[in-house]
Design brief:
It is built from four helices and no strands. With 95 residues, it is mainly alpha-helical. The protein has helices spanning 2-15, 17-39, 46-67, 70-94. The chain is globular, with a radius of gyration of 16 Å. Helices cover 88% and strands 0% of the residues.
């Protein structure tokens, strides 16, 4: 079982090292953003998790375009747009 998981990751890297690393950093950012939101839910740390979600979603677009995954491109594009709007709103209200 573990060998199959390792082989899966090796194959993913072999098919596209750039997509693999985008997905790796995307995962780190999105998990970190989700954890930040979870732990600060009563007083959300928006200046931390919104940019993390934004960059993670942008990396998701890059990796899904490379891998040619149409619905993931749409989903990550939607998340990128929503997080861009959220970041702009934060900046406007901070000024």
């Amino acid at each position: 079982m573990i060998t199959k998981v390792i082989d899966f990751f090796k194959e993913s890297y072999r098919l596209s090292p750039l997509a693999f690393w985008c997905e790796s950093f995307e995962t780190i950012l999105l998990v970190g953003a989700s954890a930040t939101l979870t732990y600060t839910v009563l007083d959300p740390a928006t200046w931390i998790f919104v940019p993390m979600y934004l960059v993670g979603s942008m990396l998701g677009i890059v990796s899904s375009v490379i891998r040619k995954v149409a619905m993931v491109i749409f989903l990550c594009s939607w998340f990128t747009l929503m997080n861009l709007i959220a970041l702009i709103t934060l900046i406007i209200h901070a000024i």
